[in-house]
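Page 47, continued from p. 46.
Same chain as before, 212 aa.
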Amino acid sequence: MKNCIVVTGTDTDIGKTVFSAGLTGALGAAYWKPIQSGLDGQTDSETVAILGEVPQHRILAEAWRLRVPASPHLAAQLDEVSIVPDLLMPPASRLPLIIEGAGGLLVPLTRNQTFADVFARWRYPTILCARTKLGTINHTLLSIEALRQRKIPILGVAFIGDREPETESIIEHMSGATNLGCLRHLDPLTPETLRRAFTAQFDISDFLEALA
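Result:
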């Protein structure tokens, strides 16, 4: 498949699911979360369906659903199941497919493989979501190095949080990665506010070109 975009992050809980919801909605795409850790409360697929106003037939089933909100390797161990990263392949989709990883790039799926290893096998254009808060320069530059070391195509960096122009500028300058835009924290966070913010802050053509 050539119509896939991967969304990953520098860390967990940085807002990449909200970003994925905005992107999936904006592109009229399908969405796939390969591994969901933590089933209490709203899952990431459910969040994307609600915030992105994505109909259920465009939300593709996870390959593994794990009860415990922990690193996939640990959650799988506690659930007494085995994750086999080599079996992870994006499901067929006639629509563009947004694939969201879990946590950061080096989150372990097993004791020997990380999400980055899977992304390196797929080699789809990858968006790195990064906070704008203190510490993000280091985390973002390290994540970009990890992507390049594995020859994973980098579509660009999507910042999430209050605008920090100097932080965004130095990351773009030092890494050479494209600054795709900045999605500010929304209050209230609703399908409408997300749709408006995403359209205002990102150039949809950047994503469409990656799918061409």
